[in-house]
Amino acid sequence: MSATATMVHHPITGRREQWATRAVFLVAGLAMAAWAPLVPFAKARVGVEDGALGLLLLCLGLGSIVAMPITGVLASRFGCRAIIVASSIAVAVVLPFLAIVDTVPGLAIALALFGASVGTIDVAMNIQAVMVEKDSGRNMMSGFHGLFSLGGIVGAGGVSLLLAVGIAPLTATLVISAMLVVLLTGAFSGLLPYGNREAGSTPLFVIPKGIVMFIGLLCFLVFLGEGAILDWSALFLINTHQVDPMQAGFGYTMFAIAMTFGRLTGDAIVKTLGGLKVVVGGGIVAAAGFLLAVFAPVQPLAFAGFLLVGIGASNIVPVLFTAAGNQTRMPASLAVAAITTLGYAGILVGPAAIGFVAQHWNLSTAFVLVAAGLVFVAVSWPLASRR
Q1: Are residues 252 and 140 located together in one domain of the fold?
Q2: Tell me: the pLDDT tens digits for 241-264?
Q3: pTM, rounded to two decimals
């Protein structure tokens, strides 16, 4: 029987599905960022040094990397709705445990489960986003990812605010978990009961190759840049530009604000300029931002560099996800899972690689290399996108 004969026809998605997709991206951003303010409390509870804490945090990334490739298959078999609901509930259940576990093995297990659950949501929501965007006939991916960034600001800021007014970490996480359940309930009817329009002909596993592998490589480089700012920007500003440690965190803040604004306005930008120009221009602007941060003669320009990185990088990944959904080398659900896994490997491996370069040379050299990677993204995409 041919693939055409086994094709499963599904209804065209509409506004309900679009709003549900936005809500799920918000859920993922809220959940992921809620952990960040809890890190110091977890470190104190289990009583570990910075090195051991770094190994524990690795469990979160490993959980995501293990779960992501599997999610494409699960979504094709059971649909986006089933996978998103199951993983969102898992996140809501596991998150409070991150506020109470007081042993190293317990925290390692909780972080691995949390990472696997968030990673599963991430892949499934992007699979839904690809299909919803296709059906809409217009650019929507940047806006979806903008809701993830907004959720990150609300999640980290909300938990920090609750902790600042004296709310216990456990109570703060229960508040976030309740928010996740409410958002999931509102989104339920708009979640797609399928994960692949050609479910009948989708193989269980496809090794990414060709354009899919290349898109994954570009996502890896962009996510590496994001991870560099998340993990190293404060230390870089302190050591290179003698910024007051109490103010060094504003480097990442400026990046996050620019990233969120860029994505929330990105659909109009992509529609006006086209995806090719967005990737090329964004890669060059983001690279220029890193170089400005490295060579800035005064502190304000160094902060401005991180602002430029956020503006430039904001819409590259959404455009690449759209491209992954449009390619024909492999099923969209498996392609999205593959590039998500490769991209998040940049966040997992990147900080360690930057630390290695910094140890043998310095952070400025590491940031220049990251800038070179972003230039590669800008230069190579015009050639790859023609194939």
Answers
A1: no
A2: 887 776 766 777 788 888 889 988
A3: 0.77
